[in-house]
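Lab meeting tomorrow. Please check the following:
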Amino acid sequence: MKKTSAVRVLLIVVSALFVLSLPCTASAHSPDRMELAYDAKTQTLSVKITHPSNNPDRHYVKEVVVKKNGQVVARGEYNKQPGDTFVYTFQVAATGADTFEVTAVCNIRGSITAKYSPGV
């Protein structure tokens, strides 16, 4: 009888831990929006990202990868995010013929990619 009770308690505890872990995973999502802008005078690419998070220390954009004409030219790695909408900047020279492709990656799940031609 005691062994059966111990098994029941163990099953209840394991089930409770599983259920409690679901909200963190269920609320994880990829970044919602990304806008790119280029300032030719300062040769600066601005990446504005919207990624709402109730806990930006645990659920955040962990990486931003900047490609120019298919080649990685800049990368930012982060361990938290400053708010729900934020801007990261990258010093990258470009001409009117260049195309940027930027990918922002969530630390839990998902990513977003945007392309931009500065037309300098």
Notes: The beta strands are 33-39, 44-50, 61-68, 71-77, 85-91, 100-106, 111-116. Residues 28-116 form a domain with the Immunoglobulin-like fold (CATH 2.60.40.730).
